[in-house]
Amino acid sequence: MRYIRYAFLAALAVILVTLALANRGAVTLNTLPSGLASFPGIEWLAISVELPLFIVIFAGIVLGLLIGFIWEWLREFKHRSEAAKRKGEVRQLERELRKTQAERDKDKDEVLAILDQSS
What we know:
Blueprint: H1 2-22, E1 26-30, H2 34-37, E2 48-52, H3 53-75, H4 77-105, H5 110-118
Antiparallel strand pairs: 1-2
């Protein structure tokens, strides 16, 4: 299985390097459209940067993955909190069970108490 993972990562690296070499041309990345950038008061938001196209592609992929991971983490919050609550309830019930068993077995012979606990 490890070799399959290495083969996949090597193939992915070859594909990404090929994509980067094929898209080295410079593109202009604007934060606002030109019509909106001329409005008074928001000129400071109008940023324009020249970058190679492959950097824009890779940054878009990474940004999409980060947004997806954060979105999924927030979506699963209720499941994680419910699991933590259930875990606390289980611990509480286990403590109560041990306490009840100890009270039940305090007057019994030790051998009989051990046999009751094992069944």
